[in-house]
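Input sequence (77 aa), recorded before submission:
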Amino acid sequence: MALSEAGVKVLPGRFLDFRDPWGNRIEIVGYDNIQFTKAPNVLRGMGLSHLSKNDQAIKELSDKGMAPDKRAQSGGS
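Predicted structure, token format:
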């Protein structure tokens, strides 16, 4: 694992968590699982237009009235 090779100690638990050099806890989460979206143009600019949300994340966003539209989900313009 690249973190181990870099001398980063992964914290125990079911997620990929570690501390940065200043002691802040960092958690790595897949984009498809989070209730956060980026505008399609931003994803495109980052070379990440292939990313989308999983059904659970879309449901959670929808329950809050924030579900991405189908065009945004497919990386459309």
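Checked by second reader. Confidence is low (pLDDT under 50) at residues 71-77.
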